[in-house]
Amino acid sequence: MDEKTTKSVDLNYTVPSDVECDVCTGRKRKAEQSCLECVASFCEKHRDLHNILHVGKKHKLVAATGSFKESFCPEHNKLMEVFCRKDQQCICHLCITNKHRDHDVILIDDEVPEKKIKLGKMQRETTEMIQTREKEEQDLKQAINSFKTSAVQAMEENEKSFTELIHSTEMRHCAVKELILAQEEAAVKQVNTLLERLEKEVTDLKSKNAELQHLEQLSQADNDIYFLQSAASIPYLTKFIQIPALSVHPSCPFQLTTDAVSNLIKELHLICQWTFMTISERVKNIGIISAPLPQTYQELLKYAIKLTLDTNTVHDKLQLSNLDLELTAVQISENYPFHPDRFERRLQVLCREGLRGSPCYWEIECGTKGSWVNIAVSYKGIKRKGKQAPLFGRSRSSWALRNYGGIYEIWHDNKCQKSYTDRSLDCSRIGIYLDHGAGILAFYNVSGKLSLIYKVQTQFTEPVYAGFGLVGIGSRIRLCDL
Question: What is the pLDDT of residues 400-417, one digit of tens each?
């Protein structure tokens, strides 16, 4: 047999990837077709024999594949033609009446198109997710580089600032030293001049004293005429000059200077201590990714705090009740005593507690659905008196959620950041979450199922205080005890 014939014959035999003929004995030939009735695969020779033996019978032949036998039920050896949706598996018709009775079954030919549609959707979603994750991965890598660059820049700028501070302190140190030395030199020079004058005056006085002692001796003699004539020759006896007494400072004249420097150092230490705490908090809250918002009500309650209304800030037309936890807008003034912190133009109030550092959470009840309420956080220095005194959210120093009859607005720096209307939404109870360090302020509807109303992302530069504003007689809010 020549080489060409040998190769042709070899092609009829199987390789590992082929389906073997189930009839062949010894060396198996490659199967060409499979019979669905016989559940067997046949090479070209045995296929012809099969067709002769089963002529006239409805045996369905299909192309031989490696998964052919997997299409048959392992229990009943019948072709699996239906799909059980409950158990998510292919079964034969006999299985329906056995293990899959009353299950949701469908023909495989009908299930496959649906599965392909779902598969296509999942593939698209997976592709989109891959693209999203790849973008997030790229963004994170860029963020790491930016973060490192920012850290280096911060250290360089801080090094420059501290160097300038040290240089400035050294200059002040030298200036104080020069002042003391200059004052010492001037004062000593002045006193030395005075000492020279005093020494001359002492010499003159001693000379005069000697003359006076001589006159005293003459006054003791019996010759009065000689005594008077001698006294007449001394002019200062007729007019005595009084030398003013000198006032000498205590032994430590520079102690006041030392005390002033000591007080400066104490104040600087105190300022540095508080400022470093602020710096430390800000550094700890710097990150590449933001902390996620709490997703459940139980998570929010972990940060619950107790707030108290500052009665010194309450507007005269806000009535306090319920142990100073509830505010109601009234028509007749309450005539609270004067206080410089009191709101005089707007019906507003602040809480006592300054909020900073760790996350915190509080809730309020907003009264009836028609109430107009302003829920805010504000810096302490917000203007409270005069025509220019703003509503919460109408200044750079405050952030506010306004709620009126299903209309919700987020305000800051006199700009509406977000506005929408949902009159079906019951927001009679609102939760406020604050992460001061991360610059996050979030408002939640906690009247029923927890839902986020709006999240503000900003940067707080000082402690903030919870604040509330009311408009309309009868509008009210109540701080909730969590």
Answer: 999 887 788 999 999 988
Q: In this structure, are strands 105-107 and 407-412 parallel, antiparallel, or unpaired?
A: unpaired
What pLDDT score was predicted for residue 8? 44
Q: Which helix (H) or strand (E) holds 370?
A: none
**Cβ atoms of 460 and 304 closer than 8 Å:** no
Task: Decide: 451 and 427 in contact? Cβ < 8 Å.
Answer: no
Q: Distance between CA atoms of 391 and 393, rounded to whole angstroms? A: 6
Determine the length of the chain: 482
* CA–CA dist 217, 220 (Å, integer): 5
Q: Is 330 exposed, middle or buried (0-12, 13-18, 19+ CB in 10 A)?
A: middle
Task: Report how far residue 357's alpha carbon sits from residue 281's, in angstroms, rounded to the nearest whole number.
Answer: 6
Of 437, 441, 370, nearest to 401 (Cα)? 441
Element (H, E) at 196: helix 108-220
Q: Distance between CA 212 and CA 175 in Å, rounded? A: 54
Return the ∠ at Cα 321 (arms to 315 and 325), rounded to 5°: 85
Question: What pLDDT is attached to residue 241?
Answer: 54
Residues in the chain predicted with pLDDT less than 50, given as ranges, are: 1-9
Which pLDDT value is given to residue 470? 92
pLDDT at res. 44: 84
